[in-house]
Structure formats: structure tokens, C-alpha cells
Amino acid sequence: MGGAGQQRLLGASLLLHGHAPICATYLAAAGLGRLLVTGAPPEIASRDPSFRMDCVGTGEPADLVLDLGDGTAFRAAAAARLWGGVVGGRVLLGDEPREGARGTTPVLETLAAAEALRRLLGLPPHRYEFSG
């Protein structure tokens, strides 16, 4: 990612919807500048003193909205957005919420963090779908 990529992440903001502490930890560790969370904030330790985390509503502006919940933040987003969930035992991550999603998994949170970072860095999107 290099210095330019790290600077880009440091200046970026991401709105995270849904309980996803693993995802939040990876985003903080990667050097994301500002993490906006809906609901209770996850406990994470960032080594970067520039990292900020704020609790917000689903319509708060951000560079990217990552909805690992019910699709509410995804539908409210005016900017780039990404959705992930577990539907019928399948981990899905992509550009459209699916009905019947239930919770997250460590695999989903890890892939979501990686894909969010790809998008914040301006890399092309990648689709993930796994069956358990």
C-alpha cells in the first residue's frame, strides 16, 4: 500500500453498522483515520494516536458505509457502500443487502474489513461468497 496508501487511509472515514468488533479492530490496526459506529462502540486498541472512533446514526456521512447488519445503513448511505451477512448458512459480502441475514461470523468480519480497505484505497471491488 505504501506511504500514499497509508495517508489515504488515515484521511478516510468508514461507517460500520452491526456488531462487528473483529472488523473494527482490523480497520483500526490498518490505520483507518475515523471509524463511525452505530450502536455500542466495540472495545479496540489502536496504536495510531490519529485514530478516532465516534458513535453515530445510520445516515452519518462517511467515505464508505459497511453494513454488517440489517441493511438500514446501506439503504441510508449517500456514498460508497458495502453489505455483508450470513443468509442460510452462507457468508455473503457484496453490493446488495439480502433478506433474512442473521448476524456475522469471524470470517465475514475479516473479509469485510479487507474489502473495505480495498475500496478505501481505490482498488477494484472483489466479490466473496462461501458456504459453510
Describe the structure in your own words.
The chain is an alpha/beta fold and 132 residues long. It has a single domain, classed as NAD(P)-binding Rossmann-like Domain (Rossmann fold, 3-Layer(aba) Sandwich), CATH 3.40.50. 30% of the residues lie in helices and 26% in strands. It has a 7-stranded mixed β-sheet. β1, α2 and β2 form a beta-alpha-beta unit. α2 runs parallel beside α4. The longest helix has 15 residues. The mean pLDDT is 87.
Helix content: 25-40%
The count of β-strands is 7
As a percent range, the share of strand residues is: 25-35%
Please state the average pLDDT score. 87
Offer a few descriptive terms.
132 residues, alpha/beta, Rossmann fold, seven-stranded mixed sheet, 4 helices, 30% helix, 26% strand, globular
